[in-house]
Amino acid sequence: MTVRFRSKTTGSSNVATFALAIALVAVAPGVAGAAQSAPSAQAAPQPPRAPQPPATAQAPGVPAGPAGVVPPVDYVIGTEDILSVKYIEDPNISVVVLTINSRKVFLTGEVVKPGPYALLAPTTVLQLISLAGGLKDFADGSNIRIIRTEKGRMISYRFDYKAIASGKKTGLAANIELKPGDTIVVP
Fold first, then answer.
1. Phi, psi of 111, rounded to the nearest 5 degrees
2. Which among 71, 73, 119, 167 would be 20 to 30 A from 180, CA to CA?
3. What is the rounded CA–CA span in Å between residue 82 and residue 97?
4. Taking the domains of the chain in order of start, what are their residue ranges?
5. Is the model's pLDDT at 59 over the cut of 80?
6. 67: three-class secondary structure by DSSP
7. Are the beta carbons of 107 and 123 closer than 8 angstroms?
């Protein structure tokens, strides 16, 4: 099977045109008029036209089904077939993030609900422990570790939950802000 296309522009427009040609090839087996025999091997670019409803291809010598319904026939595009592709000039593509799943931190050890947690907004260790339902009764809250990879190296930070909860330690430096990929270990 051979697909030929021509584009006047370069870059992402070529990719969009090629993708459209491939999409047409994917649906061509059930669409009449998607491929036609002609002496020319290439088609000149056509101006955009309004889409037309697809018809079903009928093999030569195969009668139409009941009430004029034409049974679908598999078709493979040949080297001399002419394809008509609606050309999209300068396509604009919008990408919208529906759900953030890539920014996670991992909480393990002696907490009520260990596991991965989505990091959707700035979050501190104290806030994450709260989201996890708090520490279990026999947790060692003064030796919590935050394991982080920075510049290819594993770094460990100590977090003293008891000192912050009792008010002995205060300030932002004591309550570490988490980064995606951090692992918090509660012994």
1. -125, 160
2. 167
3. 39
4. 12-82, 104-186
5. no
6. helix
7. no
- Give the dihedral of Cα atoms 183, 166, 138, 112; nearest 10 deg: -50
Query: 157: closest CA among 130, 175, 170?
Result: 175
d(CA 179, CA 124): 9
Q: Is the predicted pLDDT of residue 183 greater than 50, yes or no?
A: yes
pLDDT at 95: 80
Report the Cα 106 to chain-centroid distance in Å.
Answer: 23
Percent residues over pLDDT 70 in the chain? 58
pLDDT, position 40? 45
CA gap 163, 3 in Å, rounded:
69
CATH C-level class of 104-186: alpha beta
Q: Whole-angstrom Cα distance, residue 100 to residue 121?
A: 11
Q: How many contiguous H segments (helices) and E segments (strands) does the chain have?
A: 3, 7
